[in-house]
Design a protein that fits this description.
- It is built from three helices and two strands.
- Helix 2 links the parallel strand 1 and strand 2.
- Helix content is 42%, strand content 11%.
- It is flat.
- The chain has one domain.
- The protein is an alpha+beta fold.
């Protein structure tokens, strides 16, 4: 809800190996502004609980930056 008030209607969440492919696909989207993309470390499956915590931290940091009107990183 808070991000929608700032004009953010969607956020792309992906891992590094898929960044180039997704950015190329999004380049064809006709929008008034590009969708913010949060790029997390890869992989997202078969990882330790410490790695899960690290990915969650990355996502939380990106969300805070978006709420502050900054790029998610």
């Amino acid at each position: 809800m808070l991000l929608q008030r700032l004009g953010v209607t969607a956020i792309v969440v992906l891992t590094q190996p898929f960044r180039t492919m997704v950015e190329a696909m999004l380049a064809y989207q006709e929008t008034d502004r590009p969708l913010p993309a949060v790029v997390l470390d890869h992989p997202m499956q078969n990882i330790t609980s410490e790695e899960i915590d690290q990915r969650a931290g990355q996502l939380a940091d990106a969300a805070q930056r978006l709420l502050a009107g900054e790029e998610p990183g």
